[in-house]
Amino acid sequence: MTDKQTPSETRHSAAVAFTARLIVVVAISLSLYQLYTAGIAALTALVQRSIHLGAILTLTFLLKPPFKTARKDRVNIWFLLDWVLVLLSVYCAYYICSNLTEIFERQGDWLQADLIVSVVGTLLVMEACRRVIGLFMTGICVAAIVYAMFGPYMPMLIIHKGYSIERIATTLWLTTEGIFGLPIGVAATFVYVFVLFGAFLETTGGGNFFIDLAYSLTGRFSGGPAKTSVLASGFMGSISGSAVGNVVATGSFTIPMMKKVGYRPHVAGAIEAAASTGGQLMPPIMGAGAFLMAEFTNTSYLTIIKIALLPAIMYYVTVLFFVHFEAQKFGLKGQPRENLPRAWPVIKNGLHFIIPVIILIYVLMVNYSPMMAGFVAVMSTLATSLAADSIRWSLGKPLPWDDEAAVQREPLSGFVAKEFRIILKALEKGARNAIMVSVACAAAGIIVGMVTLTGMGLKFSSLVLDLSFGIKALAILLIGAASLVLGMGLPVTASYIVLATLAGPALLDMGVPLVVSHMIVFWYSQDANVTPPVSLASFAGAGVAGANPMRTAFTSWKLAKGLYIIPIIMAYRPLLGIGDTYELFHWSVWWTVAVTTAGLIAFASGLERYFLRKATWVETVLFWLAAAGLFWPTYWADAVGMAFFVSAILLQWFYRPPTRQ
To answer: Which DSSP state fits 188?
Structure first.
């Protein structure tokens, strides 16, 4: 106790300090628990998921204040309330683990204690959802429960018999049909270990390595920093799985560089937002989408990431062409070679970051489960990082945490202590990064559970079929509009789960294959990241760039046009492969890739009015006609579209319009 602190203030400081230490302990323990269940010993689904959710709820209530004005750095009524919620969270999870056999035996014949715990647990999940995600998704959860309770009083289109509070609460908390269903099951297994993989890569310096690699490959070209942003965001987003987080992480480096070479602030922010959104579409992680899709469709994880790769590359090609045209129109040059890192030294110094990715791909290809693959990826990242740092230390070379320190003077004990702290930091970071996904999946479990219980999914699908008149393109656009509304309040993962449950069956009824329909829904679940009026990734980019948020949002919406076009192509052409096994080496797949990519380039040229130079109105019309023909799913239209495209390019090459005096 200091002279200036009263005994009361000392007790308050001790309580706050204890809470801070507890957060670290719980976060690290959760990560170790997840590694144990992923790679060493599996547990019963309900036990594994309840322990995971109990820890996530604990971290949520200790980290996230109930209101923006509620302070977490002093003992007050809100501080005490959070501790009550933590204790309730721990007890509700413990209740399942300690009574598991009895819960299985009395399915449907519930005790009063079962009902109380179920109601409390469900309310805790909704409160965590309110704090982490917001009122919008919490409101959807409440609406789903109210709909299940008052089914007989609903409009005729969505009427059902209705269910008691006991049936609803126990279904949500004491079975795997609600909160502990498939979404949280995926979050508590596959997703967590890959989030941890990303945390280890980032903490050990992998983020800087991928950014430097992108700079070395693209920095000297026209608009180099922008192309660097696209590549770096693809590298990082494919692992981190968070568009907004990716904007902030890579954008802090790339956006200032883009502005420095002449990109307007709103354009720089928009490029980063569009590129980071693409990271959610790029294998291997796809923002948890690949794991969820594999479970929903009963398809191997390797198949999902294999068929997702080509469309993701096409999306990035579109963004790169938009970026290139912007750079050419405004005469933006690349960086001098001497100001850029050289590719070979970057690869040589960061080789240990590439090795875990190669190991991950190999483990997946030899048919290990995604959970085991994630475990191996985390362990290999840790092993290669420790090996690289040990070699640097033994040779007296600077370590990632040192600038130009005389490392050879660092004693072995100090080196080991710092490495240990880095491991703990990565474990803690992984748990913190997983909070949003896990809370979103738990809340989505409420929605999915009520949709399944009431049969709402079939009713919604019938509505989509009626409104679209059986036209696939119109149904897809309706799903896109629904995803935009959902995306205003739901994270991408939750939006995908809800849309796949409600709207996915409508596409199946129209003859779209199961995996293709889920891929379409997943792509459209991303649109709220870059589509006004919400456009969360764009707003994050605008904040880093110091630009107008709505102007940035509309620019990112333009850059990300592939996000809206490519899913429609999936429905009509074999972009994802042929047959039940999704064979990718059939000639029709590569024909589709070629003509669709050409159509996307023509579309970008028409929108920007630029290809080799500024396009005349005649050339612009030719580009638009080319895009329309190349997107239309018939071979004669492909031929006509390609003819228009070649004609526009030849005009650009040979014709020079007179300049105005």
So the answer is: I
Q: What residue numbers bound the domain in which 625 lies?
A: 585-661
Q: What are 41-63's pLDDT values in tens digits? A: 888 889 999 999 999 999 999 98
Buried b (16+ CB within 10 A) or exposed e, 428-445: bbbbbbbbbbbbbbbbbb
Q: Please name which of 526, 498, 503 lies closest in space to residue 140, comparing C-alpha atoms.
A: 498
Final residue in a domain of this structure, among 176, 211, 243: 176
Q: Please check whether residue 249 lies inside any domain of the structure.
A: no
Tell me the average pLDDT across 514-521.
Answer: 90
User: What is the predicted pLDDT for the residue at 40?
Assistant: 86
Q: Is 583 helix (H, G, I), strand (E, B) or coil?
A: strand
Number of neighbouring beta carbons within 10 Å of residue 532? 17
Q: How far is CA 656 from CA 124, 394, 624, 651, in A?
A: 67, 63, 20, 8
At 614, is the secondary structure helix, strand, or coil? strand
Q: Is residue 570 part of a domain?
A: no
66: preceding bond cis by omega (within 30 degrees): no
Residue 598's CB is within 10 A of a number of other CB atoms, namely: 20
Cβ atoms of 541 and 527 within 8 Å: the answer is no
Whole-angstrom Cα distance, residue 652 to residue 297?
A: 47
Q: HSE on the CB side for 139, CA within 13 Å?
A: 7
Which residues lie closer than 8 Å to 593 by C-beta, 6 or more apart?
Answer: 310, 314, 575
DSSP 578: B
pLDDT grade for 26, boundaries at 50, 70 and 90: very high
Q: Is the pLDDT of residue 581 over 90?
A: no
332-379 pLDDT, tens digit per residue, is 766 666 666 777 777 777 777 888 878 877 886 776 777 787 888 889
pLDDT of residue 661: 45
- The answer to the question of residue 94 being in a domain is yes
3 state SS of 610: strand
pLDDT of residue 407: 44
SS (H, E, C) 515-566: HHHHHHHHHHCCHHHCCCCCCHHHHHHHHHHCCCHHHHHHHHHHHCCHHHHH
pLDDT digits (tens, 9 = 90+) for 65-119: 888 777 666 777 888 899 999 999 999 999 999 998 888 888 778 889 999 999 9
Q: Whole-angstrom Cα distance, residue 332 to residue 157?
A: 57
Segments in 241-342 forming alpha helices (H): 243-260, 265-279, 289-297, 301-329
Q: How far is it, in rounded angstroms, from Cα 483 to Cα 146?
A: 22
* Residue at a domain's end among 176, 193, 216: 176
Measured CA to CA, the distance from residue 385 to residue 513 in angstroms comes to: 42
Q: Is residue 303 part of a domain?
A: no
Predicted confidence (pLDDT) per residue in 182-225, tens digit = 788 878 887 788 778 878 877 887 767 777 776 777 666 666 66
3-state SS assignment for residue 513: coil
Domain count, the chain: 2
pTM exceeds cut of 0.70: yes
Residues 6+ apart with CB under 8 A from 172: 118, 121, 122, 178, 179, 445, 446, 449
For 562, the token pair is 């592939």
